[in-house]
Amino acid sequence: MVEDRIENDVFDISGDNKIIVENKMGTMPVNKLLLSMSLPMMLSMLVQALYNIVDSIFVAMISEDALTAVSLAFPMQTLMIALGGGMGVGVNALLSKSLGEQDYDNVNSSAKNGIFLAGINAIIFLVLGLTVVRPFYEVQTNNIDIVEYGVDYLTVVCCFSFGIYTQFIFERLLQSTGKTKYAMVTQLIGAIINLILDPICIFVLDMGVSGAAIATVIGQIIAGIAAIIMNLKYNYEIKLDFKGFRPSGRIIGKIYKVGVPSIIMQSIGSVMTYGMNQILMAFSSTAAAVFGVYFKLQSFIFMPIFGFNNGMIPIIAYNYGAQNKKRMVDTIKLSMVYAISIMCVGALIFNVFPKPLLMLFKASEHMLSMGIPALRIISLHFLLAGFCIIGGSVFQALGNAVYSMITSICRQLVVLLPAAYLLARLGNVNYVWYAFPIAELMFMTMTAIFLVKTNRDIISKIPENN
Description:
- The chain is mostly helical.
- It contains 19 helices and three strands.
- The protein has helices at 24-27, 30-62, 64-72, 74-100, 104-131, 133-138, 144-159, 162-176, 180-204, 209-234, 249-281, 285-321, 325-352, 354-359, 365-378, 382-397, 401-424, 429-432, 435-457; strands at 2-6, 9-14, 17-22.
- Strands 1-2-3 form a three-stranded antiparallel sheet.
- Strand 2 and strand 3 form a beta hairpin.
- The two termini are 29 Å apart.
- Mean pLDDT is 87; it is low at 1-21.
């Protein structure tokens, strides 16, 4: 028997079988563990947010129509991320829970079925990229320039989605076993490559808007390859042997039990952005561009929280599987404190520096007059969003992602879009932005109710002595 220590995890290895004696998610002090797993992901998410912003900054140098075209692509891109992210959440939660239970057959099966599902997603968007991109733009605008810019951009993004899906699943496998620093490295690789290639493809090679898309997918493909290498070299808990592999309906069902609510949640975001674009285009294409700029800028605040979630979910899921109540509760409390603090800083930045933020995108005077109040009003919901995001991730980690789905549907479809539509009827685009804090208040209320229910039904029933 050989004993190897890897990233604070101890393994007893006998032949081809690996039995984990201890994993840092069950032993390391919670605050140190949470930060060690979350900070690498937060850093990589910050860099990703940065290259999303830089991408739009370069596109804005082409024209405001080009920036609007990229903004109108959000619903399709959100749907793409929804399928990959939801599947990843399901794999993450199932694999981490199986690891906590020391069920290694389930660990390996979860990983292999997740990779299979990522391939299916890539095929779906290849088909969509070849068939629906032009109709998707033509139903949103009659501006020929915006349509042509959009088709050039979104066709490339959809047809080469295998890069982002490879990156999604193999990074989630690293996160599920606590190896977030390797996932961070792969994300940084993709982001840095994108940042370097953006100006080269757009301006030096004179590819225009399609150059921005090409730079993005090249970064995603290389990051995906790096994630595969990291798993094969460092992820000892998972054995990726596909000899005789057959998709498992049982495992896929468990993945999507958690993943489908997350997919629906994020897909609802696609419906929301599409609906908001339609409401705002009734005012002007500049209003839609402002909304697109806001989405790019807010990602710089929200992406670190999502990175924090990627570190938090496997800790909660692992300790749920190990029935360690104290570590679960401590993780949830600390996560709430950190997330709310970050969101408060974000709200301060948006309220104090709206003009400099908009000028990053070469905003015209008309865009500034519309964008400054927009950023200040929308950012009010940041003060509530940290609590809501962490609460939703707790539901996912404990297998109750349907709660996240319900709250998200109510927030975006039942409250936000109807409120925005009604406020738009008042004739002033500034009123539309108040739909965001109104919807977030409802979201917070529902999240709190479901957290109380989750504590009563699941957490409180775990024995105190663990």
